Each structure stands twice: as structure tokens, then as C-alpha cells.
Amino acid sequence: EQTGRFLRWLRAQTNASDGVLRSAAGGLKVVWSGDEPPDPCEGQRVLHTDPPESFSEHFSLQTYRRHLQTQTLGRTVLYADVTSTTMDLLDGLMSQSPQETGLIAIAARQTQGKGRGGNAWLSPLGCAMFTLHLQLPVDSRLGQRIPFLQHLAALAVVESVRTLPGYEDVDLRLKWPNDIYYSNLMKLGGVLVNSTFIGQTFNLLIGCGFNVSNSNPTVCINDLVLQQNREHGRGLEPLTSAQLIARSVTLLERYVSEFQLRGPQALLPLYYRRWVHSGTRVRLWSEDGPEAEVVGLDENGFLQVMGDQGVVSVQPDGNSFDMLRNLVVTKTS
């Protein structure tokens, strides 16, 4: 139903423009079922609305659909083997397309992947990469606490593995504000949220990338699965990007719903079980800065620390957590 609504909108948008949807991200030439694929112009991408049953060796749509159990999120899939970023694929569509189409952009490789604070995100094959479109009323519980969304998305990725039977002990963790870690040792993923305010609604793009089967540049989830098999004599199967993206989106929709009903306390106990900071003593801003103890998240999703001046909150924008030196530091370009 959601995909059909999106396609009807797409046809209406392109009827008078020679089949090209124009946006800030460039031109998108739409090829409908039975049409001859065109030679795209420079800077133009081609969107096939009826892809073949097996269209990529790097992604299984069948696996994705089998593991996706959502009402809306992730139901309309835009897939590319290679793109600049999955954010770019949705950036020009989210403010124009009809509501509740569940748009998600998925890629096997990104050429210009972005992390938080303008950092580059390396995107080799084997890394699960997607951007999800979500709309939230401004006056809703989560709409009033948007910083929590990156925490919910990162938690959904961790739990996509740890709620699988047999995979509960795979040591995936959360690092404030938006990182996915192996124990407290190495980063293997992250979340980036961009928001646009239209009317009384937040249009949100949730970008996520995490290593599934690529051991470089750090470590991947299947490395941790192999470690479990080796150390505990198990026979756990390797996991796939399609499976874990679908499970992450399914859990995120559930977490958003629970947050809207009951607020932060609906998810904070689970979040604290998975994060790496409980009881950590840190230095603020520099190695000579004041010492403080990490307390938790405040009601807005900001980090709370207890120091000589009492409990203070640290906003994620412009700050990060240096695990090697136990520092909450100001990000610099």
C-alpha cells in the first residue's frame, strides 16, 4: 500500500517533465515497467520502478522483506549498488513525497559517506548502509526530545543482533552519543539524524552504517559471531546486511511507538544495559579539565555527568566521547 502510494505520486510528478523528477540532489529519470532504459544525462540517476527478481549480488530484497515486520517504516525501498550517500537518495524526496510511504534508501557502497560532525564514513562492501525517512509531530513526546532519536536508532541496531536466538552474547554496545561498539574496544557503526521542520511536523532522515561482514577498517559483526563459535563451540550462522537492516528498522518502529506512549523511561533501562559508560569517570573538555562521573541521560537525551558543581548535562552537538582517554571533548574540524 505504501509503495503504491509512492509510485502514484511519482507518476503524477513526472508526467509533465519527461519522466524526470528534479530535486536539490539532482535529476532522477524514472523508468516504468516495460519502458526501454534510457541513456542518462550527466548528473542524472535512473530509477527502475520494477526491478528484476534478482537485481544485486550484494543485497537480497527477499531476505529484507522476510525480516521486516513494520506497519510503515522501511516499506518503500530505494536501492543502489553504489551511490554517493543514501542520504542523497532521499534528501530531495522527503519533503515532496506523500506522508506514510515508509521510504528507505539502501546501498551496498557509498562513495562519499558522511559521519557526525562532517567526518567521513568509509563504506566498503559488507557494511550495512541505509537512510530512513520518519515523520514526527512536533508536539509529540519524541518530537519534543529529538536528540533521543539517534539513541533509539543505535539501540535498534544493537538489539537487531542481540535479540536473535543464540546471538544474545554477541558483545555489541552503545557509546554516547551515536556510536555502535564492540565491547568498549572498537567502533563498528554509527547513526546520523538530519531534521527539517515543515508545518507542525519534523521530517527526519536517519542515516545508519554498521559493519556486518567487512573486517576492515575496524571489526564487523560476523567477526564477533565467529568469536562466539570459537570460544563457546557454537554453530551460529553469519548474518547479512539485508537481515539486520530489516530487523533494525522493525525494532526502531517499535521503540518510537513505545517512546511516544511512555516517554524516555520506556527504553532507558534497556539502553543502559547496552551502553559502555555506567560509572565511568571522565575529564571534561581537556586532560586537565574537571573530573566527573557519568550518571546517565537527562530527559532530553543529553549526557549527564556528576562533578564538583553537581549534575550537568552535555549536549551531543559539538561534543564527543574519547574512549581512549576517558574525555568528553569538544569536536573540532
From TrEMBL:
InterPro entries found in the cross-reference section: aa-tRNA-synth_II/BPL/LPL (IPR045864), Biotin_CoA_COase_ligase (IPR004408), BPL_C (IPR003142), BPL_LPL_catalytic (IPR004143)
Annotated CDD domains: BPL (cd16442)
Pfam families: BPL_C, BPL_LplA_LipB
BPL/LPL catalytic domain span: 62-260
SUPFAM superfamilies noted in UniProt: Class II aaRS and biotin synthetases
Keywords: Ligase
Domain of life: Eukaryota
Family indicated by similarity: Belongs to the biotin--protein ligase family.
NCBIfam families: birA_ligase
Name used for this protein in its record: BPL/LPL catalytic domain-containing protein
